[in-house]
Amino acid sequence: MSATVVEVEKVEKMKNKPEDDQLGFGKYFTDHMFVMEYCDETGWGNPRISPYEPITLDPAAVIFHYGQTVFEGLKAYRTNDERILLFRPDMNMKRMNKSCERLSMPPIDEAEVLDYLKQLISLEKDWVPSSEGTSLYIRPFIIATEPFLGLAPSKQYKLVIILSPVGSYYPQGIQPVDIKVEEQYTRAVRGGTGMAKTAGNYCATFNAQSTASKQGFSQVLWLDAIEKKYIEEVGTSNVFFKVNGEVITPELTGSILPGITRMSVIEMLRSWGIPVSERKISIDEVYEYHQEGALEEVFCTGTAAVISPVGAFEWRGTSININDKQIGDVSRRLYDTLTGIQTGKIADPFHWTTEVK
Ligand code: COI
């Protein structure tokens, strides 16, 4: 079912677009955004596209005090023949509703919001960059807007979609990154909100992340909260280990984000006949595999991070280099195939892409 065509208020003066080689990640925003509101009495309504502008909220809005919010991240890609493709956007809508459920927020109509998202992209088509490794990052989010300080779910919300032309998330692109295994802090615990895409999960990682950055690491690897032993995820992405020909990734236990790139990588690997197991894997085990010479590759997966090989880990003061800090064959094949499908350069046997007209 197609949603109605939303009302559009266009900007008077369009912004200058940045050069593709200046993009970085999440620094520039397009001319317009999508907005709709919810209140308990009437449900979701008033969908519209308006100029990209600041949002005015009551200082007592629930989002400011109790962090009731969810978000998503997906990308639009420009093909060589100037078509615009989205990668598995239905999965993002589905996950957004799962996050809403966890955060006691009202569900969205997935098909309808996806249709609105497509209308926004269609209006902002010229913002989709074309250089290798670039895309238009799409950030839908919902915030709790009711002015109320009592501890209860908000009765009012705002759903906003903003767009940002981006290059690669890491300045080094697909070159392997060094990762510090976090020993002091915890990202999430089973039964908490780790599986939801909500702001608190991310800001809880900032202090460990900034310490690691100062020490020269690109990211932090999070261990389970209880035994401080089992691998969970890297703040921006899920993580995979290739050991003796088999690819292992932590199983989804409720504290790990169910990544859409993670799911796609598992499907691709299985379609190539590479065994994949989703199971508990401890950091000791990884160091043992390395000692035995069995740890062949490690890579992270995410919408922003795409496929990002890991060059080294540091844990309890001991560093290990992986695959001589080179991009492994499986990581390379996954990167080429995934980005090839996303940008329409190669066939999409999985039917993952959707064109925006
Ligand atoms: C994404 O990959 O879309 C994310 O949301 C990660 C983000 C924290 C940069």
From TrEMBL:
It holds the Pfam family Aminotran_4. One of its GO terms (molecular function) is L-leucine-2-oxoglutarate transaminase activity. Signal peptide: none annotated. Its cofactor is pyridoxal 5'-phosphate. Keywords: Amino-acid biosynthesis, Aminotransferase, Branched-chain amino acid biosynthesis, Pyridoxal phosphate, Transferase. GO terms for biological process: isoleucine biosynthetic process; L-leucine biosynthetic process; L-valine biosynthetic process. Pathway: Amino-acid biosynthesis; L-valine biosynthesis; L-valine from pyruvate: step 4/4; Amino-acid biosynthesis; L-leucine biosynthesis; L-leucine from 3-methyl-2-oxobutanoate: step 4/4; Amino-acid biosynthesis; L-isoleucine biosynthesis; L-isoleucine from 2-oxobutanoate: step 4/4. The modification N6-(pyridoxal phosphate)lysine is found at K197. The keyword Protein biosynthesis does not apply. CDD domains: BCAT_beta_family (cd01557). It catalyses: L-isoleucine + 2-oxoglutarate = (S)-3-methyl-2-oxopentanoate + L-glutamate; L-valine + 2-oxoglutarate = 3-methyl-2-oxobutanoate + L-glutamate; L-leucine + 2-oxoglutarate = 4-methyl-2-oxopentanoate + L-glutamate. Its EC number is 2.6.1.42. Belongs to the class-IV pyridoxal-phosphate-dependent aminotransferase family. This is Branched-chain-amino-acid aminotransferase.
